Amino acid sequence: MTRRYRQHPELRLTALEGEGVALHLGTRRYYTVSASGLDLLEALASPKSLAELVVVLTAKYEVTAEDAGASAREFVERGVKAGVLLVEEVP
Predict the structure, then answer these.
(1) How large is the average pLDDT for residues 60-87?
(2) CB-based burial of residue 66 (10 Å sphere; 0-12 exposed, 13-18 middle, 19+ buried)?
(3) Residue 23: which domain range?
(4) How confident is the model at residue 90 (pLDDT cuts 50, 70, 90)?
(5) How far apart are the first and last CA of the chain?
(6) Long-range contacts of 29-33, Cβ-Cβ distance < 8 Å, separation of 24 or more
(7) 52 contact partners, CB below 8 Å, separation of at least 6
(8) Among 7, 14, 49, 58, which residue is least crowded by beta carbons within 10 Å?
(9) Contacts of 67 by beta carbon, 8 Å cutoff, 6+ apart
(10) Region 23-37: what's the mean pLDDT?
(11) What is the DSSP string of 5-49?
(12) Domain containing 34 — which CATH number?
């Protein structure tokens, strides 16, 4: 089974001067994210695996795959805990 992540359907994103703001309409909570966090959230408009998120980061930033993997893993763990990302298991 592969774990894939995606934005919560009630999440709205806005880019502001080098960072992003995410609003969860259901909880009415705002979150600020870095530019790379905004890139990940935008990519997660459709389901993505951690490996796919690593590609997103390494394609845009000068970062190793190992560092990108650690950053993506931490990002999705926090996002799931905050309720802004959903997890699905696919065969």
Answers:
(1) 96
(2) exposed
(3) 2-90
(4) confident
(5) 5
(6) 29/82, 31/82, 31/84
(7) 43
(8) 14
(9) none
(10) 94
(11) EEE-TTEEEEEETTEEEEEETTTTEEEEEEHHHHHHHHHTTS-B-
(12) 3.90.930.60
Residue indicated by tokens 């796919």 = 52
Asked whether the beta carbons of 5 and 84 are under 8 A apart, the reply is no
CA distances from 10 to 17, 18, 91 (A): 23, 23, 26
Kindly report the pTM of this predicted structure.
Answer: 0.93
85-90 and 29-34 beta bridge pairing: unpaired
> Could you tell me the CA-to-CA distances from 47 to 24, 28, 76 in Å, in that order?
18, 23, 12
Contact between residue 54 and residue 72 where contact means Cβ atoms under 8 Å apart = yes
